[in-house]
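Subject: Sanity check before I submit

Could someone independently write out the structure tokens for this chain? I want to compare against mine line by line before I put it in a report. The sequence has 487 residues.
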Amino acid sequence: MNITNYLKALIILMLLFPQLAKSQEKPNLVIIYTDEHNFRTLGCYREQLSEDQAFVWGKGVEVKTPNIDRLAHEGSICNNFYASSPVCTPSRASFVSGKYPIATRSYRNDIPMYDDVQTFAEVLKESGYATSYIGKWHLDGDAKPGFEPARKFGFTDNRYMFNRGHWKALDDENGEPIIYGKYDAETQRQQVNLKKITDENFTTDYLTTKGLEVLERDKKGPFCLMLSIPDPHTPNTVRPPYDTMYENLFFEQPKTMQTPKDKMPKWAAVGGKSEAKELDQGKMQRYFGMVKCIDDNVGRILQFLDDNDLADNTIVLFTSDHGDLMGEHRKHNKGNPYEASAKVPFVLRYPNKVKSGKVINKAFTSTDFKPIILGLMGAKFTEETHGIDASGDFTSKKKVVTDDRITYMTSSAQSWIASLSNRYKLVLSTGSEPWLIDLQKDPNEEINFYKNPEYKEIAKKMQSELIRQAKLYKDPVFTSNKKLLYE
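---
Independent answer below. Compare away.
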């Protein structure tokens, strides 16, 4: 067959079987990235848990998240995905780079990344993608709000990227984003009456609208959009009607809020202002309201993909930088290795390649995102990552993938390191004995199995692997604290 006849035959095949043509297209990517998001607030994660773990604030105390759940039901859910370090800047640096925080320089909040860090967006940009970033960045140092940073790290369009702040309302002025309401540049504070804010200016809605404008512009593809929503991070405030949507709910204290302090490890850092002595019902209700607002906006994005026949060839990922304890273990917010602090939602839909309803029980951290996503997209990159390309777990025919891989996470601020598998967690910290957790037997993470004879081999395996990886990746907590060896 000569080249002319070959091309004619190929055109005829594509006309008869349009899915064949689509399968040759580069996949699009949409990342919806929230901040300080407790995984238990999502229905798809509650479905994976026992009743007492799904409803730690009381039976029936829940927020419905049908759109995020849809991603899990039509795609995949990871039950053991963790922040590489459960605070904003370090986790975000790992997510975009595929490396542990120290290798990016951003090992603590507000430390800017090295200029030469290669992000997943840089790889996609070089592969011909339109790359855009909208929302909170937190990798450019102290700048606040810091709209449209000069260093783009592969995101060609970063006009609506801002470095820091959990601004509750945004607006446009002369085609540029501004803080809505009264903004004091000296104190870096915003004054806004949320009772009067609508879906035009509330930050979650505003950023999603800008994201939809980008999708409309780039829909002929291939495109990559990262939408970084600063909620449900504190302050726990939200616009109507979400501010009163859950005011009928009463939040009971989680069981671990009653754990005696002397039964807790020192790295739990309980005391002073960090201690949660009781739950603020209004703040808890409004946290749920923020989650509901996020889910509704996820629905807007999914509707756009459906309406434009883009769903099948677009990877949609919903995840977060870290969790929020919300009263568990006597604490709010994040920073320690407990599940509610360090585990993040990771729900990925890709109809062309990922089996619907897939469940992955394997330990990952933020470092794994870059190699996984580029592996799924078939994008080649040469720079070494600390994470692994586990894209095969997502594309395999198995409905459930279970793997006992051991990885690790770290916290320079709290001086601990921890190894993780899909069942066990070992935490080493200065001034505290090694703490081994069995998530299957003790999902509340209250019992230390380290000295239990039945766990001797497990403890040894988790510890040796933790030390190996901490050495390999030059973890600053390990290198500066030889007492962590426990050998």
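---
OP: Matches mine. For the report I'm noting this point. The CA atoms of residues 88 and 321 lie 6 Å apart.
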